[in-house]
Amino acid sequence: xxxxxxxxxxxxxxxxxxxxxxxxxxxHVPEEGAAIVAGNHLSFADHFLMPAILRRRITFxxxxxxxxxxxxxxxxxxxxxxxxxxxxVDRSGREAGQAAIRxxxxxxxxxxxxxIYPEGTxxxxxxxxxxxxGVAAMALKAGVPVIPCAMIGTFEAQPPGQKFPSPRxxxxxxxxxxxxxxxxxxxxxxxxxxxxxDEIMTAVLALSGQEYVDRYAAEVKAEEDxxxxxxxxxxGRRGN
Length: 240
Prior knowledge:
Structural class: alpha/beta
Number of helices: 9
Order of helices and strands: HHEEHEHEHEEHEHEHEH
Shape: globular
Strand content: 15-25%
Strand order of the largest sheet: 1-8-7-2-5-3-4
Distance between the termini: 61 Å
């Protein structure tokens, strides 16, 4: 009930007013039945823009930090994300990845739409990064199609560190469903999972036009953060 209230009364109209989304390929999203929508992730607003324009309800796997914040603000944030159809996922460690897959399969098992960001985190610089294989594992185990999706303009509307998005027109593109039935029964084969994931990311890249980086976003961001820390320390020693 609250999901519909958010989409059609509270949040959806505001998002449409702020971003005036131009949607392409919406016909590629099935009107019924289980499917995965796999997209790039450029902004916090992505979680809400896609549900606002889709005719069907979509459930996203969201980082657990959104559900565990302290105090009243943390409880309100957690309640909001749950009401918006988000499922908390702990992103640390191998077992956490398996738990995310189980949660996703539960959504698909009910014949619903599942939203996934294969990069595993928001892009910190607007580029598209290597996808993690969880999306492939879910697609093969559930035997469902994957619809590639590209958000265009949301990075500029709300880059990292900016608390609130700036009004601007954005585009959302959906590609033709990807059928991986030829890999049925191979969900435990690492090479197959990697190949399927790369095919999904290639389709997202074709829609988004981003620069592609064949590394995981979290690794690159960690390295850049470390270099900045070392640079600040070096600058502090020179100042002394």
